[in-house]
Amino acid sequence: MIRYIVKRLLSLIPVLFGVSLIIFFLVRMIPGTALEMYMGTQVEATPEQMVELQRIFGEDKPVPVLYMEWLGDIIHGDFGYSLRTGRPVFPDILSRLPLSLELTLFSLVLALMIGIPLGIVSSLHQNTFGDFISRITGLLGLSLPQFWLAALMVMAFSGFRGWIPMGNYVGFIVDPLRNLKMLFFPSLAIGIGFAAVVMRYTRNSMLEVLQQDYIRTAKAKGLKHRSVIYTHALKNAILPVITVTGFNTGYLLGGAIVIEEVFALPGIGRLSLYAIYQRDYPIIQAVVMIIATIFVVVNLITDIIYALMNPRTRLDDTTR
Amino acid sequence: MEKPRILKNGIAIMGLVIILLYIIMIIVSSFWLPFDPSEMDVKHVLESPSFGTGHFFGTDEFGRDVLSRIMKGSSVSLIISISATALGAVFGIMMGIWAGFLGGRWDNFIMRIADIMFSFPSLLMAIFVMAVLGENTYNVIIAIGIIYIPQFARISRGAILSLKSNEFIRAARSNGAGNIYILFRHLLPNSMPPIIVQVSLSLSVAILLESSLSFLGLGVQPPEPSWGNMLSSARKVMMIAPWTAIYPGLAIITLVLGFNLLGDGLRDILDPRLRNVS
Lengths: 320, 278
Fold this sequence. Notes:
The structure holds 2 protein chains of 2 kinds. Chain A has helices spanning 2-29, 34-39, 47-56, 63-75, 89-124, 129-143, 146-157, 176-210, 213-220, 225-247, 249-263, 268-277, 281-309, 311-319. By secondary structure, chain A is mainly alpha-helical. Chain A has 2 domains: 2-75, no CATH class; 89-318, MetI-like fold (Orthogonal Bundle). In chain A, helix 1 (2-29) packs antiparallel against helix 13 (281-309), helix 6 (129-143) packs across helix 8 and helix 7 packs parallel to helix 11. Chain A starts with a helix and ends with a helix. Mean pLDDT of chain A is 81; it is low at 315-320. Chain B is mostly helical. Chain B has one domain (5-25, 67-277): MetI-like (MetI-like fold). In chain B, helix 5 (137-164) runs antiparallel to helix 8 (192-215) and helix 8 packs parallel to helix 9 (227-234). The longest helix of chain B has 37 residues, at 66-102. Chains A and B meet through helix 1, helix 6, helix 7, helix 8 and helix 11 of A and helix 3, helix 4, helix 8 and helix 10 of B.
């Protein structure tokens, strides 16, 4: 198992390397250099000052060298400086990251809490009218634009004082209750669509497991219906659900970007949107790199959990 | 004559009907709209929906007819969704076939690229590409298409790989059939079912991505109406004029639901084994 984990960890390196390449060169495709954007049209500089500025902005070197330098810097946690504020980018991102991660995690929990029970119920009533309705509901959940749902929530609940606390964001450690209250509706807006996905997977997976021989054996030896469903079937049916959950964390994190904007929450989503409107490329570059890294690491963890719970994948891996 | 299988699947029919209704609406809107979608009317700003005025879905903050804008926006959304899916499908399938058919080093190389592209959450990738290319309708198509390339590559590669070692391919080969013949005559037609399902689901996701981008101001730019940018401008007035936010949202949901129903139904019809693969 440790060998498997190490192998998977090593496989991260080329992927993250590729990710950094794509980000770096895409940003270089933007017309105009960072220095030009920084200067704007207002500022005049003497040729000597320009040379000095080019050195500061690192534009006096060929692109591959710049890339290697950038890569070296980000490994040390230095993502450069904001073009607008001049502040280092990384601490700004770090201070906003917890909110976005909490939002993602909260919406994940809500999605599982809604999706798994509905999926089980739906699988136990296969091919009935109720099952048909739940299938349509699931597809409907997939079709809801998160930002629209969020906007409707703001519209519907802002009339009720205290339902969606307005004003400044408070961290979880400062005031857990207020924090959760603030994030409940945003998380629900992100999570509902994903709950539909979880429901569909739970249903399909349950249906498959319920047809297995060992379930029939369990029933035949007189175990209670409840115990067959909840200990025997569910335990095995939940595995694919874990996998989809893990692989879709990126989808939830992406959703957080839009939802933060609707609810005016100061997370990295809002930071990156602001950076895009302001053409502040060091921030965009850093946010994309960090989110992609989180995404890749979460996928890796999902893979490892899956392997831990399902010994067959490990066997497959050694024979590959 | 036997009924085509698609007509026996209730879910697929529901999807098909919704999509057909939208197509009819787009055709109608190309030569007739209740009002001019871009004409401002200061006397009728933010009027609530009513039959009397002829503004069935009300008017927006510039007095423009919401229904006409939704109708105009439907063709924008559908064109973007179809073009982006086509872009992703063409390049993705080419990459996937290449990788699956040739195998070896090419396969490794192409699939590693796909892995790297998969490392970006799709909405983030779309936002990033829009930031690089600049905000306009064509770039929305490119941004969404780029996201789809690795998805189609992975699916078509998988399909080709599972077919390649089949008896009938070996039979064709022993009959003297060449690579190109086998590819176009046997491999491609037989790998269509999973690709068709993916196309249908991609069309639905593209509409959601386009509306998200336009909602954030990174997609279709006003005054050209798109469902996403209608919702974006509705945010400022939705407290006093909820209809400006509700109807464009419903338009998005129904069309996306249509494609999802169709995709789900097609999945049942084309290959029951596919149900757990995605």
